């Protein structure tokens, strides 16, 4: 089977400092990969390099596009990459505000990606927006409200709806539950799990929260100081950590 | 049940498996726990792992499931070597072929019991109503009252959680099953139900490995016993 | 003649503006940056239109200026006088006789010809500005033809008002490529944007020039189920009885009486001279 994403030798430096280095992996359709590490481990840098927000200093990010098969997105033209970002890729930001238009209604936020790829029937667009609000458990009657009137958890769920409406195959998530309180987190994680399974999504999730990866990720990569120190099956890495840092990370989690 | 017919062999075969834990943050202490483990389980067989506490029963079971990494050797489940397989292969195997009922129930908060039990079937693409029906059947059999089915099992008693765990483990007819203390914390009635489920699994050809503290249960359903102390490594010279 | 160079601007500046105009005509609807000069009127008073007219006028031209359709408002009069003084060109109020027409916020009712040029005064040239304040982003959106956001604005209108509420400065797609703000003309005028004359747009404060060559396809943005409608007040002109021209509403007294008159004063006058009489009009001696 062709991997959905092939990452080869990704490197990003900030002057003499390593942002991330020597990252290699393949991601297959339907796989969810967690990337964990402490602050400064390079996980967000890596995610941004993979998602095209940062240009890596070296390496390839080969995505299996629908039209042309595997293409290196690092050297892709900007219009093509932006189009990818609106259709087959999605990016869920930690802060919903970074991923939403706060001065546009919920329906408009969800509909934007549809309109960006040519949807021109108001009724259809609205119907799909309402359908997605339902799927992320936001009441239908909020469709015309601005996200500034939503709670943090609702904003995050709206961000997810906005990203998933074009049925992307790969979703990048940067600390998707960061900043949300515990019960809201639980609800969001449950939602994500369901959507990932229903839609057969592949996802790359950056988080410092091991509970999130246990719940959502099939595979795990542990990063420290810009390097991947361990990777493998999530429950294996967490229950039988091999690397010193992973062992430290796992043993530091409070058992409640 | 096309998933069953797809797999050529449901046999579990462990050969030459060794494991050590290296505790890097405790002075790199090396703790060898298993050496040269050998085990073969045929379809329709139920094998009990025995040995003193700490001898490595759960460790071996977890290695077979892929939850622990083996340092050496081969672990074949239905034609796939777990010790060398890629994560996605192990996940596919766990979804279709290899079931595991651990000692503890670990669930996503706020998911209803019925959905917890139905999940393995949903992951296989079984239609929702069918999956829920099967879940209901199992929960009823295990004497979990219907009024609890819409609640999250996180607030249940130990025994109830264990029964939910078992229900989930038996929702799909796995060709290979790993059971870690399935009858612990159960009263005689429910113990009998669980043993009945295991018998049924055996009868349809599942290969089963179990850890039973309960000697009676062991005697009742297991075809033979394997003492894992045979695989304890000699103290390092 | 005056001490000014022809049409006030020096020749180098006119060249620079003409280059921008040519570029704009070559890429219809694309906003060409230009170095807007200081003019003897403040920003926001038509400096863009004036600079484009100054670069376009030749001594043989006949020049007309309208402000919201009218030749006799203060601004129209002062701009007309400005060019009379600095360029010495002939001026007229008759649309038919003009070769260059500078307009603020209206398109004349009378269809324009291939030998005419229409110069628009533009306040904010960027149609995406209200939804995306970053210039860096809007430039990218234009260059990559990413116009989904434009439809988001229309979607928001429908969801809030039940219909696309934009009544003027209604965005259009030019030559199937660039989305353009046609300046604050009423949406009623949008269909006229497909015409035989050259159309030039000047924004002095924002320093942009854009253009639409003759017979270019110009389509107003809409949704399939909410199509564009060029609407106007449901009245006829009270002076000349025209049913097809854009109307101004005039309050007559404190009792709520009002009248509707053609916004395009020249059009109304022409019709009256031809004998048409509206509800409140008087017979005009031929």
Automatic annotation (TrEMBL), chain A:
Domain ABC transporter, first and last residues per copy: 5-250
Name under which the protein is recorded: Phosphonate C-P lyase system protein PhnK
PROSITE patterns membership: ABC_TRANSPORTER_1 (PS00211), ABC_TRANSPORTER_2 (PS50893)
Signal peptide region: none
Transmembrane segment boundaries: none
Pfam families in the record: ABC_tran
Record GO biological process: organic phosphonate catabolic process
This protein's encoding gene: phnK
Single GO MF descriptor: lyase activity
UniProt cross-references to CDD domains, sorted A to Z: ABC_NikE_OppD_transporters
Taxonomic superkingdom: Bacteria
InterPro entries assigned: AAA+_ATPase (IPR003593), ABC_transporter-like_ATP-bd (IPR003439), ABC_transporter-like_CS (IPR017871), P-loop_NTPase (IPR027417), PhnK (IPR012700)
Species assigned in the record: Antarcticimicrobium sediminis
Keywords: ATP-binding, Lyase, Nucleotide-binding
TrEMBL record, chain C:
GO biological process: organic phosphonate catabolic process
Iron-sulfur among keywords: yes
Ligase found in the keyword field: no
InterPro entries cross-referenced by the UniProt entry: PhnJ
Any one GO MF annotation of this record: alpha-D-ribose 1-methylphosphonate 5-phosphate C-P-lyase activity
Superkingdom of the organism of origin: Bacteria
Coiled coil: none
Record keywords: 4Fe-4S, Iron, Iron-sulfur, Lyase, Metal-binding, S-adenosyl-L-methionine
Catalytic reaction equation(s): alpha-D-ribose 1-methylphosphonate 5-phosphate + AH2 + S-adenosyl-L-methionine = alpha-D-ribose 1,2-cyclic phosphate 5-phosphate + methane + 5'-deoxyadenosine + L-methionine + A + H(+)
Top-level EC class as recorded in UniProt: lyase
EC number from the UniProt entry: 4.7.1.1
Function as written in the Swiss-Prot or TrEMBL entry: Catalyzes the breakage of the C-P bond in alpha-D-ribose 1-methylphosphonate 5-phosphate (PRPn) forming alpha-D-ribose.
Entry's family note: Belongs to the PhnJ family.
Name of the featured protein: Alpha-D-ribose 1-methylphosphonate 5-phosphate C-P lyase
